[in-house]
């Protein structure tokens, strides 16, 4: 059915940031299409995201699934205005312990899934002359404060580069199409529990950074949709930490990263 209100597709929407974002967009009147592998959880979030929210069980690491997600969104709502590549998974493994399988999975879940989303929806945006692609990355893709996330951090750094390159390409030919990168810091989700490898019992965090809720990150993404920017850190404290890192990388790393506060059970996203 054709709708005049804005329509958003959110991957990784069965929990965490994706679920919070779907609920918030639905509350704001968006037509919402939710995608994730966990069907029961996905359908529950859809019920909380609007009367006509569409749940589409999707394995974002499969191109055919992502193309089908786009097609179902277009068939249901007539168009897509915002596409959020949020699906991802972490790892608990330092660099020297990574296996081929570890690296392949991190690239597949965190990079290839987003690439499939970009290639599926951006032609639709170009044809319409408008649209907003949002890739959810991580502060850890910029600053190595959680080295046990190694291959996850590397995958998010690759996603950062793909996002920037696409943005530059589209700025030349399709200025009405926005491309944004979102970098959360520490977020209270099940991220660590679902990571590849043995979960660590606690995660040392920066007292200066603090931990955000998924709802706080979702609010930052909604603000980004309303006022598009190239990149945002969802946690304002991340800006200063990143600045200090790039001002003197050697000194930052020699100090073991930013000053650390108490340990917490929350997780780096």
Q: Topology of this structure?
A:
Layout: E1 7-11, H1 16-27, E2 31-36, H2 39-47, E3 54-57, H3 63-77, E4 82-85, H4 100-128, E5 131-136, H5 150-173, E6 177-183, E7 186-187, E8 203-206, E9 211-212, H6 214-226, E10 231-233, H7 236-247, H8 249-254, E11 260-264, E12 267-268
Parallel strand pairs: 1-2, 1-4, 2-3, 4-5, 5-6, 6-10, 7-9
Antiparallel strand pairs: 7-12, 8-11
Helix pairs in contact: 1-6, 3-4, 4-5
Structural account:
The chain is an alpha/beta fold and 269 residues long. The protein has one domain (7-268): NAD(P)-binding Rossmann-like Domain (Rossmann fold, 3-Layer(aba) Sandwich), CATH 3.40.50. 45% of the residues lie in helices and 19% in strands. The chain contains 8 helices and 12 strands. The protein has helices spanning 16-27, 39-47, 63-77, 100-128, 150-173, 214-226, 236-247, 249-254, and strands spanning 7-11, 31-36, 54-57, 82-85, 131-136, 177-183, 186-187, 203-206, 211-212, 231-233, 260-264, 267-268. The strands form 3 sheets. Strands 3-2-1-4-5-6-10 form a 7-stranded parallel sheet, with helices on both faces. A 3-stranded mixed sheet has the order 9-7-12. Strands 8-11 form a two-stranded antiparallel ribbon. Helix 1 packs across helix 6, helix 3 packs parallel to helix 4 (100-128) and helix 4 packs parallel to helix 5. The protein is globular and about 55 Å long. It starts with 6 loop residues before the first strand and ends with a strand.
């Amino acid at each position: 059915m054709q709708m005049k209100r804005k329509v958003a597709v959110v991957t990784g929407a069965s929990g965490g940031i994706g679920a919070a974002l779907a609920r918030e967009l639905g509350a704001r009147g968006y037509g919402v299409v939710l995608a994730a592998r966990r069907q029961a959880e996905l359908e529950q979030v859809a019920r909380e995201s609007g009367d006509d929210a569409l749940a589409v069980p999707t394995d974002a690491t499969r191109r055919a699934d992502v193309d089908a997600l786009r097609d179902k969104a277009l068939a249901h709502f007539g168009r897509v205005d915002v596409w959020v590549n949020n699906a991802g998974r972490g790892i608990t493994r330092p660099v020297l312990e990574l296996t081929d399988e570890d690296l392949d999975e991190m690239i597949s879940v965190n990079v290839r899934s987003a690439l499939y989303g970009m290639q599926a929806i951006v032609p639709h945006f170009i044809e319409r002359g408008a649209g907003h692609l949002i890739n959810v990355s991580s502060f850890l893709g910029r600053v190595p404060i959680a080295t046990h996330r190694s291959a996850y951090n590397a995958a998010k750094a690759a996603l950062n580069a793909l996002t920037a390159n696409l943005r530059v390409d589209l700025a030349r030919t399709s200025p009405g199409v926005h491309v944004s990168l979102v970098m959360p810091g520490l977020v209270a989700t099940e991220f660590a529990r679902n990571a590849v490898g043995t979960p660590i019992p606690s995660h040392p965090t920066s007292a200066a950074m603090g931990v955000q809720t998924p709802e706080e990150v979702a609010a930052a993404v909604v603000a980004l949709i309303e006022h598009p920017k190239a990149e945002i850190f969802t946690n304002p404290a991340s800006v200063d930490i990143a600045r200090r890192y790039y001002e003197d990388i050697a000194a930052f790393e020699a100090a073991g990263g930013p000053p650390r506060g108490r340990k917490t059970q929350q997780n780096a996203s």
